[in-house]
Design brief:
This protein is of the alpha+beta class. It folds into two domains: 2-198, Ribonuclease H-like superfamily/Ribonuclease H (Nucleotidyltransferase, domain 5, 2-Layer Sandwich), CATH 3.30.420.10; 217-353, no CATH class. The protein has helices at residues 17-22, 70-81, 92-106, 121-126, 139-145, 156-169, 172-187, 297-305, 332-353; strands at residues 2-7, 27-34, 44-53, 56-63, 86-89, 117-120, 208-213, 226-231, 235-238, 241-249, 257-260, 264-269, 274-280, 282-287, 290-296, 311-312, 316-317, 321-326, 329-330. Strand 18 and strand 19 (329-330) form a beta hairpin. The longest helix is centred in the C-terminal third of the chain and has 22 residues, at 332-353. The two termini are 38 Å apart.
């Protein structure tokens, strides 16, 4: 296995509104190359990460020199990925991340990225397919729309054939061609956020996040991770409650969840892949013109599993009372910051207990 590290001379991140929001996060862009589409039979041969480290811009590639070294490659990659809170991919929800999950399971490696959030640019662009002048949604097609032209001239499928040749003859020119393909995939990925300039009213990507929940443990080492979506537009206020609905995705088989507690209700249907959380608001009148609505974060977590404290990597220690809105103006930033922690803890506690 080889790790190739590059310090970029220029800032690779555009200055559009979506990228500026991403830059506020502890993020990385990710892209992988594999020997095929079967998660169980094929291998990861190359992983690319693009990230910011202090004032520097870094691109890192993990290359599989020998098929027997896949476990070592994944272990090094997981150690690095665990340092980030937000991952941005292109079709990563359907391919890259599930592929990595399966390969780590095959090697009995822990992939418990409990605070990892995920933006799949492909999923967001696909929603606009009726309005974009695109014949398909392949990465290179979107790049051409944005005026991005590569040096690399191979496809992902061709890189598989080249990798087989490299394993046989160790020709460094072949290896460099594979590396260049992945390098440009990941290097140009931040520029793909520019496609949303076609839709000036597009909501911020950071306000529509996929959260990953680890459902593996010593007792259940082979469980898949569950992904749930929390969108800004799915947060509603009604009858002194804050209500959140969203979609989930999991390969595991689980029972429904229906919780009715003093301060919150939660329901989840794995068949419909949908959840709903209702949290009761309390009200304080600060002065004749200011009414604050809040809930007690700590009491809810205690009701879930007697947690004495809650940690969220993006926030550090979370206060007990969370102000959700003032005079009925919803604090979306606060909601997006703390409510996923509640949902994650519910899934971990009640899905484990249902096994």
């Amino acid at each position: 296995m080889n790790i190739f590290d590059y310090t970029l001379k220029h800032n690779p991140f555009p200055s559009n509104k979506h990228m500026l929001e991403i830059l506020k996060e502890n993020f990385c862009f990710l892209d992988i190359e594999t020997t095929g589409f079967s998660r169980k039979k094929d291998r990861v041969i190359l992983i690319g990460l693009l990230f910011k480290e202090g004032p520097k811009y870094k691109l890192r590639q993990y290359f599989l020199e020998n098929p027997s070294q896949e476990k070592e490659l994944l272990r090094c990659f997981i150690d690095d990925l665990s340092k980030f809170d937000l991952m941005i991919t292109y079709n990563g929800l359907s391919f890259d991340y599930p592929f990595i999950q399966e390969r780590t399971n095959q090697h009995l490696l822990p992939l418990q990225l409990k605070n990892l959030k995920h933006i799949d640019l492909y999923k967001h662009i696909q929603k606009k397919k009726q309005s974009l002048p695109l014949e398909n949604f392949q990465l290179k097609t979107v790049e051409k729309l944005l005026g991005i032209y590569r040096k690399d001239g191979i496809s992902g499928g061709e890189s598989v054939t080249l990798y087989d040749q490299y394993i046989q003859n160790k020709n460094l020119k072949i290896r460099d061609e594979i590396l260049l393909h992945n390098y440009e995939d990941i290097f140009y990925l931040p520029l793909i956020t520019g496609v949303f300039a076609y839709f000036p009213d597009s909501p911020f990507l950071v306000n529509s996040l996929h959260h990953s929940v680890s459902l593996s443990s010593i007792e259940n080492p082979n469980q898949q991770e569950l992904t749930f979506v929390m969108k800004m537009n799915d947060i509603k206020l009604k009858d002194y409650k804050i209500s959140i609905t969203g979609k989930t995705k999991t390969l595991g088989e689980f029972q429904k969840i229906n919780l009715f507690e003093k301060d919150f209700n939660f329901s989840w249907s794995p068949d419909k892949e949908q959840y709903q959380l209702d949290v009761l608001m309390y009200t304080e009148i600060l002065d004749p013109d200011t009414r604050v609505h809040y809930f007690n974060f700590q009491e809810i977590l205690t009701a879930i599993d007697k947690f004495s404290s809650a940690e969220d990597s993006a926030r550090g220690s979370v206060d007990n009372n969370i102000i959700m809105y003032i005079n009925f103006g919803l604090n979306y930033e606060e909601a997006l910051g703390v409510i996923p922690t509640i949902i994650k803890n519910i899934f971990r506690k009640y899905l484990f207990s249902s096994q």
